[in-house]
Amino acid sequence: MAMLPPWMRSGRVLTGLVVVSLIFLCAIFAPVLAPYDPNQQDLLAMFLPPAWAPGGDPAHLLGTDSLGRDVLSQLIYGARVAMTVAVVASVGAMLLGAVLAYIAGYFGGRVDAVISRAVDVWMSFPPVILSLILMVGLGVGLRNVILAIILVDWTRFCRVLRAEVMVTARRDYVSAARLVGFSHWRTITREIIPASLPLLITLMSLEMGIAVIVEAILSFVGMSVGAETPAWGQMIADARQYIYDSPWGLFFPVLAIFIAVFGFNMLGDGLRRTLDVRVAVTQRV
């Protein structure tokens, strides 16, 4: 354990890594792990409770829904949509927000003023409402969900990272780099980006949890993937009509979303505590 890096010795980081890794494994190996085709219907086995409940069938571990589809298989395949959106949308929002943050924080002046005002205007709209408006204009589809999340959430990265870049750009070692002839590009890539990387990693891991929630909301209102593609929000929308007949159909997708968001938040908080030098020093004091 002594040879491990500090972030690998954090209980929060390890807990988050285990949870997130398990969900990613379910998403990658869904065809192998899922006992049934998620769209396979059996009208003779509708509303089956979980296997351990009275009337349950061991062949359907978590029961079935209103069309006799296996809930466990839908959850496993639903992880594919959630993790795809979490990774791709988070990377896209991070790249867009980080580029603008480095430009605004490093150069300052009018460039910073323009970017900051754009961020303020964009953040004045409620994120979920703005996502729904964008989906109306873009249309239904996984690619459009990812694009909508990127266009909404880049401001999270830009606002937080800009403040960090402004502080870092005024450090003595950055001034020294400029004095010895470093170009703006080299100063940013060699001095400022490495210093802000821990914050960037933390923001991205937290954004993944947010992306899972946003995708679930959009699929709940029917503005994400099609009906033939299992998604956790879509499962909730279908199950809410039969909450008194099969509450487990509503409980399990909600639990899946909770576990995914919990894993990403634990990972992000653990990385922040271990990678951010200021937080680590404060905890020691």
Distance between the termini: 23 Å
Instruction: List SSEs in N-to-C order.
Output: HHHHHHHHHHH
Count of structural domains = 1
Question: How would you sum up the major sheet?
Answer: none
What is the count of DSSP helices, taking H or I runs of 4+ residues?
Answer: 11
Radius of gyration: 22 Å
CATH topology, what is it called?
Answer: MetI-like fold
Low-confidence stretches: 280-285
Average residue pLDDT:
86
Helix content: over 70%
What is the C-level CATH assignment? Mainly Alpha
Principal-axis shape: elongated
Structural features:
285 residues; mainly alpha; MetI-like fold; 11 helices; 71% helix; disordered C terminus; transmembrane helix; MetI-like; Peptide/nickel transport system permease protein; protein transport; peptide transport
What are the SSEs and their pairings?
Layout: H1 11-28, H2 30-33, H3 71-107, H4 109-123, H5 127-138, H6 142-169, H7 172-179, H8 184-220, H9 232-239, H10 248-275, H11 277-284
Helix pairs in contact: 1-3, 1-10, 3-4, 3-6, 3-8, 4-6, 5-6, 6-8, 7-8, 8-9, 8-10, 9-10
